[in-house]
Amino acid sequence: MGAVKVILSRELQSYFATPLAYIFIVIFLVLSGVFTFYLGHFFERSQADLTSFFNFIPWLYLVLVPAVAMRLWSEERRSGTIELLMTLPISTGKIVLAKFLAAWLFIGLALLLTFPIWLSVNFLGEPDNGVILAGYLGAWFMSGGFLAIGSCLSATTKNQIVAFILTLVVCFLMIVSGFPIVQDVLSGWAPLWLVDGFANLSFLTHFDAISRGVIDLRDFVYFLVLIAAWLMATVLVIDMKKAD
Amino acid sequence: MIQVSNLSKKFDSFCAVDDISFTVQPGEVLGFLGPNGAGKSTTMKIITGFLSPSAGEVTVMGHNVKKDPIAAQSEIGYLPEGAPSYDDMTVLASLQFIGKARGFFGKELQQRIESVVAKVELESVLKKRVETLSKGFRRRLGIAQALIHDPKVLILDEPTDGLDPNQKHQVRELIRNLSEDKTVIVSTHILEEVSAVCSRAMILANGKIVFDGTPAELAAKSDFHNAVTIRLGKHSEVVIAALKKLPNVKHVSVSSDDLITVFANDGQSILAEVNQVLQRGNCLLDELHVEVGRLDDVFRKVTLNATLEETTSEEQV
């Protein structure tokens, strides 16, 4: 695991070597505040929970996580450093994992920095902090899912913008597959298992369950399996396409 | 030691490397020559395990690159084309990263960085960010990254590209000093570099090896090999006619500024014969020298031939 740690720490350092990381964190915090307090009617609801915060997190991640993921591999390919990295005596799998973990930790850090919202709710009332903790965990796992998709799609192209848009579209599909619109379209004719299958594919189905405080191991397993699958796909894409 | 056997690499329908085989022994410095797109970089990328071959095998120090890439890659120091490094890091941080990724930590890492920094003279820019470096320093950082683990096999893709003459000289000195027990492959466009640093030259064209030998043998393939160039004090048609009649002389050319070049048949030594003619004619000489051979001339001959053969054989098909 030594090599993973070395690459992970280089990646994390490079996030903070440019203003990019700080800009991302500021935008994330501002938007999550706006969503929670204005659009989520945090005060008007006068309930001591973070539902208004967690309701918007998937949509915030839909835009912001692809922005982090887009440079994961596109940048390495564009600058040619992928050749430096991939000829080190370290397996592709470890490199993919290390770069993913660095980005995931970074997004986790941004998420932790929303703690003032948690402080406010604790100051104003007596929320169920277990549910809130579950919500935070769920949000972090969901961001990992978005990120793994972005990692794979970023490996397919040298162009960061293309990577961003591809990731956004795929992540959007992963969110809406559990939506009533999609479900209604399906439920008219499709067998029940297909309808359920689509609903189960959705990030929202699993995230909502976790953020309501229903800790079902299967929801976490869903995200972990999803992450593992997309990271394996990343390894394949890189081995196939690293030359062009 | 590097063994390459029946190596091919196809990109879609384009064949970048076409069934080549060769072995490089420790102590050898192999110069890869060839026009752009000849397959030099592709071959190097396969040897370092970055690309996988379409067919054939490569072993580095006994490790099969495809089956055991990690073992092979630990033996190799590689400078990729264009010397890529992470722009947002300082020179020192870059070297620390590569060192750690190769498994060196603490005191050993520090010693290795110090020694490699001294070797390629990077002290003055250690704290600078890579994006602010000049081309020369960038290239040297790339070489330092390739040398940090003191590899047995060194693969350098155009190590002197973009350097000024002084820096080129430094890098060549460095490669020469390194090479005693190492297996080195250097690719280059610059032909003089081959005679300056390489013990063996290999010319690739259209993915095939069209020449493999010592730099001296390469020079001997030139029409100019052992040709005698003279400048007479006074122009004399008689002497030129006499030179033309010599048995081992192929032909004689006279340039517009009266420089006479006497070409030898099959690169034989003709200095003695030419000298006799000149003495008999009581010629005063302004200049006389024997040509070793012109590498760019051979290069053009060898690579153009290969291209011609390729097109004619395609037409026949």
Model description:
- The complex is a heterodimer of chains A (244) and B (317).
- By secondary structure, chain A is mainly α.
- Helices cover 82% and strands 0% of the residues of chain A.
- Chain A has one domain.
- In chain A, helix 9 packs antiparallel against helix 13.
- Chain B has two domains: 213 residues, P-loop containing nucleotide triphosphate hydrolases (Rossmann fold); 63 residues, MTH889-like domain (Alpha-Beta Plaits, 2-Layer Sandwich), CATH 3.30.70.
- Chain B is built from eleven helices and 14 strands.
- The model of chain B has no long low-confidence stretch (mean pLDDT 87).
- The longest helix of chain B has 22 residues.
- The chains are: A mainly alpha (244), B alpha/beta (317).
List strands and helices in order, with pairings.
The complex is a heterodimer of chains A (244) and B (317).
Chain A: H1 2-17, H2 20-39, H3 42-45, H4 51-69, H5 71-79, H6 81-86, H7 92-112, H8 115-124, H9 129-154, H10 160-176, H11 180-187, H12 192-201, H13 203-211, H14 217-241
Chain B: E1 2-11, E2 14-24, E3 29-33, H1 40-47, E4 55-60, E5 63-64, H2 69-75, E6 76-79, H3 91-101, H4 106-120, H5 135-147, E7 153-157, H6 165-178, E8 183-187, H7 191-197, E9 200-205, E10 208-213, H8 215-220, E11 228-232, H9 237-245, E12 249-254, E13 259-264, H10 271-280, E14 285-290, H11 295-316
Parallel strand pairs in B: 3-8, 3-9, 6-7, 7-8
Antiparallel strand pairs in B: 1-2, 1-4, 4-5, 9-10, 11-13, 11-14, 12-13
Helix pairs in contact in B: 3-4, 4-5
Largest sheet of chain A: none
Q: What's the main sheet of chain B like?
A: 6 strands, mixed
The number of helical runs of chain B is 11
CA radius of gyration of chain B: 24 Å
Global geometry of chain B: elongated
